[in-house]
Amino acid sequence: MSEFKTVRGMRDFLSDEAEMLRYVEGTARRVAGLYGYEEIVTPVVESYELLAAKAGEEVRSRMFVFKDLGGRDVALRPEFTASVARLVATTLRNEPRPFRLFSVGAVYRYDEPQRGRYREFWQSNYELMGSKRPEADAEIMLLTDSLMRKAGLNRFAFKIGHVGVLRGILNQEKVEDKTQSAVMQLMDKKQYDEALRKVEDAGVSRECMTVLRRLVEFSGKDVLAVAGEIGVLVEGYEKAVEAAKNLREILGLLLESGCKTEMTVEAGFARGLEYYTGLIFEVYVPDMDIALGGGGRYDRLIELFGGEPTPAVGVAHGIDRIMLGVQTQKNAQRLEKAKSAMVIPIKEELRGEALKIAQMLRDASVMVEVEVMGRKMAKALEDADRRKMDYAVIVGERELKEEAVVIRNLRKRVQETVKIQRMTERMENQSTA
Ligand code: AMP
Predict the structure, then answer these.
(1) Helices 238-256, 134-151: crossing angle, 10 deg rounding
(2) Which atom of ligand 1 lies nearest, measured to the CA of 291?
């Protein structure tokens, strides 16, 4: 039989990576708690129709689609928003607004595998539904800011745009929705020339082309000023002017809230998902040119799924990419780890005592492995070392008579006899660094 491998784009997470994944996931959950987002768990498999409804051609073409045994067209979720929108349009329909909903888990896209791009990856997803006000947009960016910091990133930046600017212009120029989406997708891939050509082919005015040419290149870090200038640039396109004003308001609130994170406004910034209607943003770290998270406002999605008109703003973070980011930023905090100990009975007759002591340590939140290979002391200590344990707890007859054990600090290579009652106290007072 040939040797089995994981399917292309799928990965195994062994100990360290699994721990890091759960750490970032746990951090995302804590941030959700701090901001009042309730966790919901939705299925990995949803109807193709639901997931395809507004995903945008890009994501749609990369879904894992199949027929289940009942002949239903289903797919693995490529993101969370459609599932959340389904819930809000149905089960949660009559609940009081706003909703703050959080999800975390694996999502699936048939992307071309490379560093930071996988076919199974993890997202944390936050949706704030029911408010069309700029403070809701600001909140989604602020919680993203909190998550990045708490996960251990110390350098990252926001890239910010507003779909309403471009849509405002194209709508007033009577460019079809479908063409608009195609234009956005080209812009998302930074194919600005092709995007502009497509707009030109749609028969827009000369002034429109002039405005768009200036707009796609327009960006800057003095974000309030840039948003203001965009407003001037698009004069005459009423909805686009409104959009620029909305962008300026959101940025104003962010700055007032004390957010010090670097921001760049890019007027030509677009995102692949079709459902955005307002603010859009992504998070980047300096040494990686892939986004760690992205989100924005989508005011019409819930209606599309048959719900009450519900303005909404949300964000999805790539947990795998946050992990990569944390690894690349050298002075990132180390994960807080529980103290660890290997409990080793000196002889067979003391196995029961060793198990008992192990249970006592676990009750005091020490991570414990018990020696189960029947190794002699020297070999057992070697093994504990290899497993990067902080301590070895040696259970011997002589010490037991005095209700004590030997605790060996494996990092410092020193040991002492300690009363059983005081084991954890000793471990806490000692550094293993
Ligand atoms: P999107 O909804 O496409 O903006 O995705 C949200 C976030 O998910 C992105 O900012 C990435 O961090 C992450 N992400 C998207 N696609 C992948 C992928 N193929 N592999 C790993 N992470 C991804």
Answers:
(1) 50
(2) 10
